[in-house]
Structure formats: structure tokens, C-alpha cells
Design a protein that fits this description.
Layout lengths: L1 H16 L11 H7 L4 H14 L3 E10 L18 E11 L3 E5 L5 H4 L25 E3 L5 H12 L4 H21 L2
Antiparallel strand pairs: 1-2, 1-4, 2-3
Helix pairs in contact: 1-3, 2-3
């Protein structure tokens, strides 16, 4: 039974990983269901709901790392955001067969073709690569307090005007991703 559950979890993780990343978007599962695209927050909210329907629990995980992916560091519209970090959302999946596993389904396979880090295929027992190069701490937070915790962390990390610069940079990043998808 655990092997079957593990295979179902792997298939679910791959299915949600296939959803194209796009920003901005609401940070909830319904947004992905309605629009067919998602952010790190909404894709992981959907994954958490779907895992729970299989009887597998997860905990939100916040990590901090560079805002701009390596492949976009030299683009004019992303360069201003280079000094900034992003508060990134992923999950710790509590697998009955392996214990806690870090899961990150942020980047879809098309983006992997442009050098963004994903774990695909995933074996269901190993920690997945993070969407950003997190070199520091990670924070497990209560699901009910996730939005408040993420905003509190952002308020600690961003100075005056940096949140607006972060948002402009994320729009530019998402625009590049849409161009990459259109060119395939």
C-alpha cells in the first residue's frame, strides 16, 4: 500500500510541477485551478490540498535566496533586482515511507530547458532542488499563519522601495518565461 501511495504522490507532484509558473497571482489553490498557471505560493497550496486528499500531510516551508534566476541576470529589466532576495514558498512533505522531504514544484519543465533548477523525474524519497539558490535558513510555519509569517519576513528583509522593485522584477521574470514558452 505504501508503494502505491508513493507512486500516487510522485504522479501528483509531477502533475502540479507541469503547471506553468506565472506571476502575479493569488497565493491559493483556487487560483491555479481557475487560471491554469501558478506562483510558488499557489502551486504549493494546490499541492498541499491534493496531498491531504491522499492522506499525506505537509508543512509550508519558507526559504530566502536570490530573486533573479541566473539565466536572467544579464537582462536589462531584471538587472535592477539583482541585489534583492525572494521569500520563496515550498513544502515539507511528511512521507510515511521516508519522513520529511523537501518538495519544490515552482518551475515547470519548460523552464528547466532554460537552466532553472527542477527535480524531474523525482523518486518520491529525495529532497527536491529549490527553485532558488537558498544558502541560508528556512522556516517551517503553520499553514494558518503562512501569509502573515511570509509578510513579516519580507518586512524584515526589504527596505524602502524594495518591495516595489521586487514586484517589477517578478513581472519582468514572468514575462521572460512567457516568451520562452511561446518560442518552444
Amino acid at each position: 500500500m505504501t508503494i502505491d501511495l508513493r507512486q500516487r504522490v510522485i504522479a501528483l507532484v509531477h502533475q502540479i510541477q507541469d503547471v506553468p509558473y506565472a506571476w502575479p497571482g493569488l497565493p491559493d489553490a483556487g487560483s491555479v485551478r481557475e487560471h491554469g498557471v501558478g506562483t510558488c505560493a499557489s502551486k504549493h497550496a494546490l499541492l498541499a490540498e491534493e496531498l491531504l486528499s491522499l492522506g499525506v500531510t505537509s508543512t509550508p516551508l519558507l526559504v530566502v535566496g536570490p530573486l533573479v534566476p541566473d539565466g536572467l541576470r544579464d537582462t536589462d529589466d531584471c538587472r535592477p533586482g539583482l541585489p534583492l532576495v525572494e521569500v520563496h514558498e515550498c513544502l515539507t512533505l511528511i512521507a510515511p515511507w521516508a519522513g520529511p522531504i523537501r518538495v519544490d514544484v515552482t518551475w515547470d519543465p519548460v523552464l528547466a530547458g532554460y537552466g532553472l533548477p527542477i527535480t524531474r523525474p523525482w523518486d518520491g524519497s529525495s529532497d527536491m532542488r529549490l527553485a532558488l539558490a537558498a544558502g541560508g535558513a528556512g522556516w517551517a510555519v503553520e499553514r494558518a499563519q503562512l501569509r502573515a509569517a511570509k509578510e513579516a519576513l519580507r518586512s524584515r528583509l526589504y527596505g524602502p522601495g524594495e518591495r516595489e522593485l521586487r514586484d517589477r522584477t517578478l513581472r519582468a521574470i514572468s514575462h521572460h518565461f512567457a516568451r520562452w514558452r511561446a518560442s518552444r
